[in-house]
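Quick entry between incubations.
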Amino acid sequence: MASAVTTAPHAHADHHDPTESYLAKKGLWSWLTTLDHKRIGIMYLISVSLAFLLGGVFALLVRLELWTSGKTIVEADTYNRFFSLHGVVMVFLFIIPSIPAALGNIMLPIQLGTKDVAFPRLNLLSFYIYLFGACFGVYSMINGGVDTGWTFYTPYAERTQSFVLPMLGAAFIMGFSSILTGVNFIATVHKMRAPGMSWRRMSLFVWALYATSIIQVLATPVLAITLLLLMLERGIGIGIFDPKLGGDPVLFQHFFWFYSHPAVYIMIVPGMGVVSDLIATFSRRQIVGYMFVAMSSLGLALVGFLVWGHHLFVSGMSEYAAMVFSALTFLVGIPSGVKVFNWVATLYKGSISLQSPMLYALSFLFQFTIGGLTGLFLGTLATDVHLHDTYFVVAHFHYVMVGGTVFGFFGGVHYWWPKFTGKMYDEKVAKVAWFLVTLGFNFTFIPQFIMGSRGMPRRYYDYLPYFEKWHQMSTVGSWILGLGVLVMLYCLLTSLFRGAKAPPNPWGSAALEWQTPTPLPIYNFVKDPVVTRGPYDYHLATDAELFEGFPEDAKKVGKNPDDKAAKKAVEEKDDEK
Amino acid sequence: MNPDTAFRDGENFQLPPAMSVEAKGIDDLYLFLFWFSVAFFVAIVGAMIWFVYKYPRRKGAHTEPPLHITKLEIFWTVVPFIFIIFLFHLGFKPYITNAIAGEGAVDIRVRASQWRWEFEYPDGSRDTELHLIQGQQYRMVCSSEDVIHSFFIPEFRMKKDCIPGSYSQVAFTPTVKGSAHVFCAEYCGAPSTPPGTPAPGSISQPWNGHAGMLTMVKVESKEEFDKYIEKLSGPQEGETPVAWGQRLFMKNGCTACHTTDGSWKGLGPDFKGLYGRDEEMSDGLVVKVDDNYIVESITKPNAKKVKTGPKAKSGNPSANYEKTDMPPFVMKQKQMDAIISYIKSLK
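Done. Structure below.
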């Protein structure tokens, strides 16, 4: 295996201590020029978290405006900008890079037992491309933003007076960042695995990132072409999509969803990967049907390319095309179902510990099941005609994207936080945050299912008085959700200053990333690891790993692994349910 | 939105009342999917909660070795596959049936534009409200003047996008007398400058843009419908041409963009003192406003566009007539005459 010949671009002639923390080197410049995947991952994590908070502010403004029918705080035009910016920021700046580029960057090389990704410079470049693209987005927002929705449907996106071109530029540029990350991850998975890290020993998170990377590399160029054509048409009036210039507006929808439906799997598949790892660790069991779960990620990546037409069932597309797309859409249910069934089966006879990351994983299961089942209503042709473009769709995809991906992201951040920061957060506060976030999320979106099936169309500034009570429930939910996110931020950020020092393996996981010191050394491992078992092989793990944490690290901080106090602390942690 | 528009409950709180032949089948399907989903949800989440309760972590306890039952994996791959074939069929059959209008279906043209609906009946008379005969099958032929809109009547469980540059069709048969809302379901923006007031009695609210693109559909008996059509195309009893012209002016939604009081507040030019005036066009041509110019401005509105600027006396600096397109209107000669009389009267 090639892991021993990993290039080490951040190596210095005077750097000898293999246990030195990757966080040891201080100074902004050392961060901005770093080639260390962990540092790049953390810079991504900070960027996407800021984007999430910005998108969240827009979401709260949208919900606040809908508190009453008619005007509550702003005029229709401003409201349209709010919901459009909520969508654009959340999709392009947050959710697509969230798990792969932030958590994936940090964990993928460690889970593979290697020192870095295959192309560390490309990795840093992709981060700067993301920032460069984000600058265009911010420039558009400073000038009033866009009112097109995140979908930029033609010909509206060509007629509106809002600042569309820079926003299209932002999405176009950030696409390259996504492609480069994908290429990097594929090469890393193929070429950089540690000795003994066979395909069957890769974590399901790595499998998920691998499937995601394939979609990123194959689908994102189509978005780039589409957005470029739209920019050219808006800028210099070539006739592709605008019927006034001889174009076809529905063609844009085909092109757009050819990327954006696979992009849905760019968003959800990494979340599924995180949840697989969480459920294994906190049930101390191998994921049931490991290969089925791994292959279902690839299956979703494949089928995801064939279903874009289900966004066009009422667009005047041929009824026979709708028939084919409906049939293919139902196929998505199979790999999704396989994952859910295997996760639940893993809990059976497990040793389940309800620590905060696991709570997020269970919320994911609960919410993803709702998101998936409500998808049946939309894949079914006759019911989709009624539900298309109503709040039912809004609730459905928020259950998948937020209830699924964002909860997976939260769970992953809580799970790996001790590893990459070296600090423990306050578990009690984290649980309070989980409770508020889960309650708030469901409170926000369950009323939207009912509004949708009752016929409330989406992207509406105003509504019939009948819907007021449902809208107000939803708005109250958004406040609880917002409060939960603030408590979570408080919990995580204060841990950086006041948190206890994290042991190397606080969760008693058998996975490879926990078998290395905390905080992580620059090259991830003190010695190049030789992998002898899979990440979920709890039946092969030693008691020391499961019940005491990593012995070597205990030595490093001057404690004997047999130290009774340390052992007791670990056991007490275990006792917490 | 308009508070006096009653919103009734359907038989099931999840769905609005069913008012068409098609709605019944779709409701049955919806409720089948609902209970199917509830059963699945209870099974999955119930198992999850039960396992979490049953197998909590115990100090120092080891878990059982990994569980691999290939038969089980195949079972939960194949059984959902059978389910989805079944569900696909349930959804496809009514969809394809509803897509095709039977013989004897009456065509109504649906023209959407920012932010109003216009319906044209087979005799050529037009209205912003939709009136239908109970039990008659209809085919709506949808088109759009500007951006994509979507014709949506929840009570009929029916929706079709109105695409500029092409036609789309949808068929249905209303079965229940009464009224319901017509919504626009495809996002179509909002005005950046406040538009004028809509026709009296109309529930359209163009200042709300997409959300205000609202009208009513009324299902009535053949006799009521005939009376409605008769009233629609001609003047009311004792109505002067000017008054009729004003009514047509309101009804066609002209007030969405044009003001008539000299305030110049709309997206288009103000009409006070328009008739007989010399107007400068964007290409520099000066036109005297007469009957022929008005007819051209209504039937081919974008052939000549008034110059924006001080010459236009525009009190609304954010409006740009050269960049705003007006949809063309087709009407009967009598109606055109009445509108000209009305514009002439605005002094």
